[in-house]
Design brief:
about 45% helix, Rossmann fold, single chain, 10 strands, three-stranded antiparallel beta sheet, alpha/beta, 2 domains, binds S-adenosylmethionine, seven-stranded mixed beta sheet, Arc Repressor Mutant, subunit A, about 15% strand
Length: about 350
Amino acid sequence: MAQLTPERIVQIGMGFWPARTLQTAAKLGLFTELAKGPMTGEQIRQKFELAPRAIPDFTDALVSLGMLEREGDGPDALYSNSAEADAFLDKAKPSYAGGLLEMAHDRLYPFWGDLLKGLKTGQAQNESARGMASIFETVYSDPEGLAQFLAAMSGVSTGNFMALAEKFDWSPYKTLCDVGGAEGILAMSVARANPHMTCITADLPPVEPIAQGKIAEAGLEDRVSTAVVDFFKDDLPKADVITMGMVLHDWDLPTKKMLIAKAYDALPEGGAFIVVEQLIDDARRENAFGLMMSLNMIIEGGDAFDYTGKDFALWCAEAGFKGSEVLHLAGPSSAAIAYK
Ligand SMILES: C[S@@+](CC[C@H](N)C(=O)[O-])C[C@H]1O[C@@H](n2cnc3c(N)ncnc32)[C@H](O)[C@@H]1O
């Protein structure tokens, strides 16, 4: 039997070191700057107003994490982005996925400091724990917070939505409404990959102009439109397919069931209800990202939680759906699909 070592324990337990190093670099905009051309440590220090002590430890740590490359040694060495960082952490590129890291830097990291308190009380440890209302009311009351939150969502979701647009068989359907659609990425991904589909992205009022801007940028106005919906008050727009990306996980069980019932009512016979989540595996043993996403939902919402494909199938059967299946998308994310 292999000798036991504490290596994995140290790696996991000290996971905040690499996480915080990368989040800080993303927050500074280091990768966006280096995408314009290589820089020496001193140039980086001056550009971002860092203390002399910061360099070369900060930049070399990023080299060791595979996020930067370094040509040469010593003060004349030139730093540039790794291929991965250049593709996904340069704000000037449409593939930018660093919004999640920026939000992790500003919100999730400090709030996760109170995980123990969240576990003891079962109560949210985000802005709402500081005497404010729900995450959407608090984050959305500040335009900068709203833009950062929506970009963070897109950072997690874009790859999954592209996979859904390609992997699911859209041929029996013509219309889609994505509820809680944020920047409109799901609706645009499906429309782009399936020229026969017409899509609506529906969300709260402050989100609409942001989605409209993204749709216009992509030149998809002919087949992707926006709608303002408050799913606590309104019926959902009718469509052949209703989608919800990381929406059900935001809420407690009664709200999840209310949303599933509203999706059922908005669909025709034969219609499909699709959720995209970091769906937990049925045995609740393997999808660590999904399980920790659910811990994150204690921090963000107290009673909110992530769930398995089996949970989804049960709730949808209760609502009247005929059957359901799980379609793996990318990494820890899957779609769960219920048919009316
Ligand atoms: C966690 S985000 C997910 C965004 C996107 N679907 C994705 O997967 O990346 C949840 C979304 O639900 C929307 N939302 C929250 N409360 C809502 C409400 N009462 N009515 C409609 N949308 C709401 C938020 O504005 C946000 O865009």
